[in-house]
Amino acid sequence: MRTPTTGTAPATPPRTTYPLGWLRGVAALSVVLFHAYQYQRTAPGWEWPMSGVGHQLMTGTDLFVDMFFVLSGIVLWLPIAHAAATGETGRTGRLLLYRRLARLLPLYLVVVLLVWAWTNPTFPGHWRDLALHLTFTHIYSDTYIFWTNGPAWSLAVEFHFYVLMALSVPLVNAGVRRARGRAGRLAVAAVLPVLCVLVTAAYYTWALVVDPAPHTDWSVWFSPLSRAADFGIGMGLALLSAAGVRLGRPTRGTLAVVGVAATAVLVLERPPTSVVGEVWHPLYAATIALALAAIVLHDGPWPRALDHKPLAWVGGLGYGVYLIHEPVMRALGSWGVLPEPRLGPWFLLTAVLVVVPTVALAWLSAHTVEAAGLRMLRTLERDGTPRDYYAHLDGEDRGPADGAAAADGRATAST
Q1: Distance between CA 269 and CA 230 in Å, rounded?
Q2: Contact of 116 with 129, CB cutoff 8 Å
Q3: What is the rounded distance in angstroms from the CA atom of residue 336 to the CA atom of residue 353?
C-alpha cells in the first residue's frame, strides 16, 4: 500500500500512503457495536446490558470517533505540511475544501433527506431539524443535535474543520513565502495545530471551571471547540512526518505498545457519569497519536497485519458504514427484526443483524452515490484549476473553428 511520489526538493522524504485503512474498518465496526449496545438498554431506568469492566470497555468505544478526527487531521494537513517543508505553495484552500466536500456531501445529503422524510411523513415535519442538518449547524442545538441521524454530529464537526483548514491555507502559503529557511516554514505550518490544542484546553477550562455545564448540554460537549485538539494532534503528527522525522524499529515498537496501553488505561479509568470524563477525548487523541506514530513516522515496509484485506475493505466503506448503520438499526427495530432490549450479551446479535445490511448498503453507496461525488473531482486539475479537456490539441491547430468543431464532435459522441 506504499506509493512514493517524487518531490521537487531532494531533501524532502518521499510521500507515503500509510496503511491506515484497517483502522477505519475497526473504528466503523466498533461504533456500530457501541450503538447496538446502547440500543439494548432496558426501560424504565435505561439500564445498560453490562456492568463493571465490560460496561467500561463498551462505553470506551467512543474513543474511535476521536480516532476518526485524528486521522482526518493527518490526511488533511499532510500535503500542506509537505508543501511548507519544500517551500511550495501551489495547493489552494478552495481545492482542499472542494475535495473534502465531494467526499462528504453526496452520501450525507442522501441519508439526511431520506431519513428525515421517513421520520417526518406528515407535512411540514420538523423543518428546523432538516435546515440545521443541511447546514451542519445541528451541533449547536441541544434538541436537534442527535435527531435524524445521531452520528451526523461528528460529520458536522468535520465540516467545520474542513472550512477552517481551507481558510487557513492562504495564510499558511503567505507565511511560507515570507519565512526564512525550512525550519521557519515548518513553524508557520505548526501554528494552526498548536492553536487547535490550546483552544480545546481553554474551552474545557471554561466549561468545567469558569461556567460549568451539565453533562446533558450536548452542544457544549460535542462542539467543534471540544474536538479541536483531536484535529490539532493529528495535524501535528502530519507535520512531524513532513519534517522528515523517522523512527527506528525499537522506538516504533515502544510507541505502539505505550500508545495502546495508555489508551486502554484511559478507558478503564474514565469517570462513567462525570463531566470530567469529557476531558478524556483529547487524552484519547494523544494516546492514539502516540500509537499511530509507529506507522506515520516510518516509510515502510510495515507488518503484513496492517494490510489485512478484509478490514481494509471495510475501512474503504467506513464512511458509509458510519453514516448508514443508525438508520438501518432504527428500521430493523421498527420491523421487529432486532431482539428486545435485555441484559446480557444480546447486543452482539443486534450488532451482527445491523452490520450485514449496513455493509451491503455502504458498498452500494460507494459504487453509486459516493462515486458520483468523486467524479466531480475530475473537473479539476491537481492544482485546483478547471480541467482543460482539449489540452491534447496543439495550440496552432486549436482555432475558433477547430474548437467549435471539436466541441460539436464531442457533443455528438456523448449523445
Answers
A1: 20
A2: yes
A3: 12
Other CB atoms within 10 A of residue 125 CB:
13
Question: 178: helix, coil or strand?
Answer: helix
Is the CA virtual torsion 145, 146, 147, 153 positive or negative? positive
211 by Cβ neighbours in 10 Å (0-12 / 13-18 / 19+) ranks as: exposed
Distance CA 381, CA 388 (A): 8
For residue 86 the three cell numbers come to 519544500
Which DSSP letter does residue 6 get? Answer: -
Question: How far is CA 139 from each of CA 129, 171, 203, 226, 324, rounded to the nearest angstrom?
Answer: 11, 27, 16, 11, 19
- Phi and psi at residue 62, in whole multiples of 5°? -70, -10
Write out the three cell numbers for 371: 462515486
Cβ(358)–Cβ(325) below 8 Å: yes
The tens digit of pLDDT for each residue in 123-177 reads 888 899 999 999 999 999 999 999 999 999 999 999 999 999 999 999 999 999 9
- Rounded-to-integer distance, Cα 47 and Cα 381, Å: 54
Prior bond of 357 cis (ω within 30°):
no
Q: Taking a C-beta distance cutoff of 8 angstroms, is the pair 289, 237 a contact?
A: yes
Q: Give me the numbers of helices (H) and strands (E) for the chain, helices first please.
A: 16, 0
> Rounded to an integer, what distance in angstroms lies between the CA atom of residue 238 and that of residue 191?
13
Residue 37's CB: how many other CB atoms inside 10 A?
A: 23
Q: How far is CA 41 from the centre of its chain?
A: 28
Which run of H or of E encompasses 16? none
How far apart, in whole angstroms, are the C-alpha atoms of residue 315 and residue 236?
A: 23
End-to-end CA distance of the chain: 39
With H, G, I as helix, E, B as strand and everything else as coil, classify residue 42: strand
DSSP, res 365 = H
Query: Crossing angle for the helix pair 280-296 and 181-205, nearest 10 degrees?
Result: 150
Q: Which residue has the cell 457495536?
A: 33
Q: Which residue has the cell 512514493?
A: 4
What are 225-266's pLDDT values in tens digits? Answer: 999 999 999 999 999 999 999 999 999 999 999 999 999 999
